[in-house]
Amino acid sequence: MRIDVVTLFPELVAGPLGTSIIGRAAQAGTVEYRVHDLREHGLGRHRSVDDYPYGGGAGMVMRPEPLFDALEPLRAAGAHVVLLDPAGERLTDALARELATIPHLALVCGRYEGIDERIRTLVDREVSIGDYVLTGGELPALVLLDAVVRLVPGVIAEASHKGDSFASGLLEHPQYTRPERFRDLEVPPVLLSGNHGEVDRWRRRESLRRTLERRPDLLDEAPLDDADRRVLEELRSGEA
Ligand code: ADE
Q1: Does 144 score more than 70 pLDDT?
Q2: CA 45 / ligand 1 centre spacing (Å)
Q3: Is 164 a catalytic residue?
């Protein structure tokens, strides 16, 4: 997979792309990252990339020319162009999984108070990471990239994202590691029992419990079987 990031602040995205799982995916050749400095496409002696809004108002607007110069070759190379924008479609686990199947993504980071509307003609989709406004699209681009890259086959063991919160439509069950007893906090005995059937049932129950307590809205969409529904009834009636 190839991911291009188009930004006015390449230094802001460079660090995370070289670090941890995201960095290792590049070292292993599974994913290739290319960061493009929009300033290189800036206009005039000052390499200007923004200007005052027509019609007046506060703030500056990113001009179309630098972004067109940066994006046209990427589109010609087959990139699916994603603009990070608070007005975009909300990033979800399902969207991350869909984007992880696309061989070439170009992530466009907006800055300042906005971008010239004509830039959207080069964009295949717009994505928001949540209902809050950041100073630019760089951190959202990194959030999207991280969520996508970990799902690319070979980046992490598939088993580790099969049980992710949301992948099953439910929140993830609690996890424990050594020691068995820390201060006065103990690991649930079932996890030490070696009985895989019991462990699976416990995990499913705790997943359902956590989802019911924290995100009951997810239960409307989650694929549930009869056993799940019985567990939920018990949990709701306070029996478990
Ligand atoms: N740019 C600024 N805020 C953003 C957000 N919440 N999501 C995506 N891009 C953004």
Answers
A1: yes
A2: 30
A3: yes
Catalytic residue flag (residue 89): no
- Dump the DSSP string for 76-134: HTTPEEEEEEEEEEEP-HHHHHHHTT-SEEEEEE-BTT-B-GGGGGG-SEEEESSSS--
Which one of the listed residues 75, 125, 150, 215 is annotated catalytic? Answer: 150
For residue range 22-41, what is the model confidence (pLDDT) as tens digits?
999 999 999 999 999 999 99
Instruction: Tell me: do 141 and 46 sit in the same domain.
Output: yes
| Residue 171: inside a domain | no
Distances from the Cα of 235 to the Cαs of 50, 107, 206, 208, 209, in angstroms? 56, 43, 10, 9, 7
Q: How high is the pLDDT of residue 112? A: 65
223 shares its domain with 154? no
Structural domain range at position 84: 2-158
Is the per-residue pLDDT at 221 higher than 90?
A: yes
